[in-house]
Write a structure and sequence with these properties.
By secondary structure, the protein is of the alpha+beta class. The protein has a single domain, classed as Gcn5-related N-acetyltransferase (GNAT) (Aminopeptidase).
Length: 186
């Protein structure tokens, strides 16, 4: 297992990880899959591949990733086509998209970067998530990014504990989600 910078050769694998770690119907429902990929994956690997890292197995297949937008203003300007497709394909998830976008905008001055991390089942619990987070945070520090945030479902206690162990603090709980952030200048 190793962590490497995103390369387009991992595109299919990264997109697959995004689908299999999303809602149960994401891999099989074209509408849900299109929503998930355009909301949580495609923008990052297409517009900010230099801020994406991939966990690969011994066969050089993507089994996890961390994807990041380093600057909210750039993200907001360039993510519009992706979010439009996501909203067009979302059903009840439209509220989730709106809540996440509201949180990103609301806290973007203090936390200009945001991230997504997913690891394929069977590869979790072995420290790979922590290594992915550390790799991304080190990369962002080197670029002078002051802070990064993420959103997670408030009921996902295991993920919240994982982020807390990795230095993230709860910023706010709202809309069924928890916004967490970490200051990189400390």
């Amino acid at each position: 297992m190793k962590i490497c910078r995103y390369d387009d050769k991992y595109r299919s694998g990264v997109r697959d990880v995004c689908l299999v770690t999303g809602p149960d119907d994401a891999p099989t429902d074209k509408r849900v899959g299109t929503y998930i990929l355009n909301c949580y994956c495609n923008y990052y690997i297409e517009c900010e591949p230099g801020n994406c890292f991939v966990l690969v197995n011994e066969d050089d297949e993507a089994v996890g990733y961390t994807l990041c937008a380093e600057n909210y203003r750039n993200y907001r300007k360039n993510s519009k086509p992706y979010l439009k497709i996501a909203r067009e394909n979302a059903g009840r998830e439209k509220a989730e998209i709106a809540a996440e976008q509201f949180a990103l905008r609301l806290f973007s001055k203090k936390y200009p970067a945001h991230l997504h991390i997913d690891i394929r089942p069977g590869y979790t619990g072995s420290g790979f998530g922590t290594e992915l987070i550390r790799t991304l945070l080190s990369h962002l520090k080197d670029k002078g990014v002051p802070a990064v945030m993420l959103t997670v479902g408030s009921g996902n206690r295991e993920a919240i504990r994982f982020y807390e162990r990795n230095g993230f603090k709860i910023i706010v709980k709202a809309f069924g989600g928890t916004v967490m952030g970490i200051n990189l200048r400390i």
